[in-house]
Amino acid sequence: MGSGVLSLRMDGDLLDRLRQHAAKRRMSVQDYVTRTLIREDFDERFKMSVDRTERFYAAPPL
């Protein structure tokens, strides 16, 4: 899998908050945003998997 470039225009206050969050974790803003997006994507895919598993094992309607 390759990589690409994404440019964002955002509010200065939001960028400042991202810088603060990244600094707390000793990360660059780019790394912080990337990891946050990866985590969010994983959480979403995990929830879908759980929902599918629950539907698969659910008792059939009476």
Strand count, sense and barrel status of the largest sheet are:
none
The amount of helix comes to 55-70%
Tell how many strands the DSSP assignment holds. Answer: 0
Low-pLDDT ranges = none
Oligomeric nature of the chains = single chain
Backbone shape: elongated
Strand composition percent = under 5%
Description:
This protein is mainly α and 62 residues long. Helix content is 68%, strand content 0%. The chain contains two helices and no strands. Helix 1 crosses helix 2. The chain is elongated. The protein starts with 11 loop residues before the first helix and ends in a 5-residue tail after the last helix.
Descriptive labels:
mainly alpha, 2 helices, 68% helix, elongated
Summed up, what is this model?
By secondary structure, the chain is an all-alpha fold.
Element layout with pairings:
Blueprint lengths: L11 H13 L4 H29 L5
Helix pairs in contact: 1-2
